[in-house]
Amino acid sequence: MLLKLSKRLLIAYAIIFLIGQILSSCMSFKTSQKDIDKAFLGYKMKPIQHQIKVNDVMMNYAEIGSDTLPVAFFVHGSPGSWSGFMDFMKDTVLLKKVKIVSVDRIGFGESDYGYAEESLVRQVAYLKPIVAKYKKSGKKIILIGHSLGGPIIARMAMDYPELIDNLIIVAGSIAPDLEPNEKWFRIPMNFTPIRVLIPASFRASNHEILYLKPELEKMLPLWKNIRQPVIVIQGGKDMFVSPKNADFAEKMLVNAKSLNIVRVDTMNHFVPWSHPQLIKKAILESIAPSAPRGGTFE
After folding, report:
1. pTM to 2 decimals?
2. How far apart are CA 174 and CA 217, in angstroms?
């Protein structure tokens, strides 16, 4: 009886494992070169992917646009990949004003896929050489971070202020006290027998989110060091990140050169796809003369 039960459990585990692998291929958030070529068919330009070795990890990113322009540098959330921002790379008006760069964060896309980094300090260290490459040519660097990309770009401004000119935090999970208590399911999902059943992109996502709150707590005394102009975009119907994160930003960014808080009551978490015009407008405002602190735009 016990032997039969064990066999059934092994068979069930094997089936779940196979389903997990199938889902992993479907939910990788990766975009093939064939799909990229198809998406940009008829456009004069298309994104070019590059790889750079950072601490024995090949970091992947894509760029499009003129080298003579300021750089709008996109950092995705969790999970995600550089290709989540491809629609911005098709915007011919935007491309007349900025060069667009979008990165695969470590653990996602083609950057050590499936193996996330829990430390935000180390995460931004992996991004530093890519950002520094563009800053070296003297170009203005505007960081745009969506969701978990929000605290990452804030941490980069704290650790490498000389590289960053402007921040745009979009539905950013930046306040430690507003992080939901999800350890009851995230800790079990992080154990090896269960981890292998989860698609690699969600495995990486679960791992970094599990450690996010203490990482955000480490940033608390450093917010006052951010002096760049900042725009925060937050939806009132966000079910993944508390809308009160915008209030946290307003409280903590006391030394930002300028601070614009854009709140849309009816907007959800997926701002880059539901309200891309807000991000576009924020980018254009970031390359214009600085607005006075407390200014807003609609």
Report:
1. 0.87
2. 9
